[in-house]
């Protein structure tokens, strides 16, 4: 944050990188509020495809020249960069003052009320780790084993009968921790319970069934016709328990999309369930290689199954009290916002007003 505070205090902010400009520009301008981005340019072939090769034979000299051309008759006041063996070949040599990041302490003389960086909520990256040469080599070596492991997991979760899954799921490296008290089946209820869950990955429904010890129907809220879809879910709910994902889309980051409020009118017997899935030894770690898909072909979900370990944490909260339901006079949106908030508090996530449409609009 000290580095950000110093960077934000400048009137004109320029981000300089050896990476391809097109991969950095949107993030730097949207989230870091940069005015300009200087980076390398990718070669595009005659068919309009990016080759992956860069145009500049000498990256450092090219970047240095473009920084000089940008400022022309004046030197940049301040340059922040990683320590380099030869400062003369980097953009830092053009700056009046040079500071090596990370910055410790506020070096700025300006006392400004600065806004924090805009958080990254949506992204389409499937890599968990930065693909450095060593990590890239490790991923390539793991790929053959990962493909075999993915095939085993797909067979366990989608081919085997449900009763057999608890006996073999552990050997595939999938671990599920259940917190809270899962509600039992009750013969006295006239309809099933509605489990309202945040949507972490595409296997949330299977993991929830495993945690409950019984198979239940799952619905991701993507309603084209509200009345018809509500009628279908009510019909299923009259026969048994139903899990619903009001976000409408799975989400990798520690945020919750705005909940579709339709679930609040379906029943008053609502059980919030916090779902958290990770690829390491704990749900908060990033020890794996790949994320679940955020858009695109469903078959790309196979990459998520190729992680060495998959860890899930399912937390059952208390059934929603009647005073917090629509029966007490609360609106659908009040109920939806309340459920979103208690799930976010349980997970340590942040609520947003963004919808699934906002997500796909940004990622396409």
UniProtKB/TrEMBL annotation:
Principal cellular location given in the protein's record: membrane
GO molecular function list: glycerol-3-phosphate 2-O-acyltransferase activity; phosphatase activity
Residue ranges of the TM segments: 134-152
Subcellular location: Membrane
Topology class, membrane: Multi-pass membrane protein
GO biological process entries: cutin biosynthetic process; phospholipid biosynthetic process
Span of domain Phospholipid/glycerol acyltransferase: 193-278
Domain of life according to the entry: Eukaryota
GO cellular component annotations of the record: membrane
UniProt xrefs under InterPro entries: HAD_RAM2/GPAT1-8 (IPR056462), Plipid/glycerol_acylTrfase (IPR002123)
Record key words, sorted: Acyltransferase, Lipid biosynthesis, Lipid metabolism, Membrane, Phospholipid biosynthesis, Phospholipid metabolism, Transferase, Transmembrane, Transmembrane helix
Record family assignment: Belongs to the GPAT/DAPAT family.
Name of this chain's protein: Phospholipid/glycerol acyltransferase domain-containing protein
Gene source species: Arabis nemorensis
Lineage, broadest ranks: Eukaryota, Viridiplantae, Streptophyta, Embryophyta, Tracheophyta
């Amino acid at each position: 944050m000290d580095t950000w505070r110093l960077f934000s205090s400048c009137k004109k902010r320029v981000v300089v990188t050896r990476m391809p400009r097109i991969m950095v520009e949107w993030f730097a301008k949207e989230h870091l509020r940069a005015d300009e981005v200087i980076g390398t340019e990718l070669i595009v072939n005659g068919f309009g495809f990016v080759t992956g090769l860069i145009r500049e034979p000498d990256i450092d000299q090219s970047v240095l020249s473009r920084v000089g051309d940008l400022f022309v008759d004046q030197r940049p006041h301040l340059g922040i960069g990683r320590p380099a063996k030869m400062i003369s070949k980097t953009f830092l040599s053009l700056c009046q003052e040079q500071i090596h990041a990370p910055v410790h302490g506020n070096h700025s003389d300006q006392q400004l009320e600065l806004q924090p960086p805009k958080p990254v909520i949506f992204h389409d990256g499937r890599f968990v780790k930065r693909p450095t040469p060593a990590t890239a080599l490790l991923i390539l070596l793991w790929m053959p084993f990962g493909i075999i492991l993915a095939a085993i997991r797909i067979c366990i979760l989608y081919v085997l009968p449900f009763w057999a899954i608890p006996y073999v799921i552990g050997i595939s490296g999938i671990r599920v921790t259940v917190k809270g008290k899962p509600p039992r089946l009750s013969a006295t209820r006239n309809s099933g319970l509605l489990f309202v869950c945040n949507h972490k990955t595409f296997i949330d429904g299977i993991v929830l069934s495993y945690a409950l010890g019984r198979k239940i129907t799952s619905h991701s809220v993507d309603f084209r016709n509200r009345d018809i879809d509500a009628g279908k879910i009510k019909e299923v709910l009259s026969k048994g328990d139903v899990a619903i994902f009001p976000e409408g889309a799975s989400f990798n980051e520690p945020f919750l999309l705005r909940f579709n409020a339709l679930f609040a009118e379906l029943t008053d017997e609502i059980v919030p369930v916090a779902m958290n899935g990770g690829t390491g030894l704990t749900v908060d770690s990033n020890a794996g290689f790949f994320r679940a898909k955020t858009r695109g072909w469903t078959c790309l979900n196979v990459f998520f199954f190729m992680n060495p370990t998959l860890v899930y944490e399912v937390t059952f909260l208390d059934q929603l009290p009647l005073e917090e339901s629509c029966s007490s006079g609360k609106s659908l949106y009040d109920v939806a916002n309340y459920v979103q908030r208690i799930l976010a508090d349980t997970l340590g996530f942040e609520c947003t007003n963004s919808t699934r449409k906002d997500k796909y609009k940004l990622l396409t």
